[in-house]
Amino acid sequence: MRRQGFTNQVISIIHSIPPGRVSTYGMVAAMAGNSRAARQVARILHSSSAREDLPWHRVINRQGRISLPPFQGYELQKSLLEAEGVVFDSGDRVELAHVLWSPESAE
Length: 107
Hints:
With 107 residues, this protein is mainly alpha-helical.
């Protein structure tokens, strides 16, 4: 089955997020060409992470929080990010100013 262009772009962008950095659903959508498709990015992550070996844990919401609920992936995502050096504050948020990735910020 052939993937759509937007889906291909999203998968490529998520593969590009380096360890220790994060992006948001909305930013990934915008980089893929549709700034209003954050929910579609979430759907792509849900359906394609295992098949595409995506670093799914590096995509969080625009508030710097993990969107998955407790006991439904939240703890795993947080532990994977912490293992990469991402620090959470006492409100379980990451400081996006320090860990937010975009292609322009790539070294």
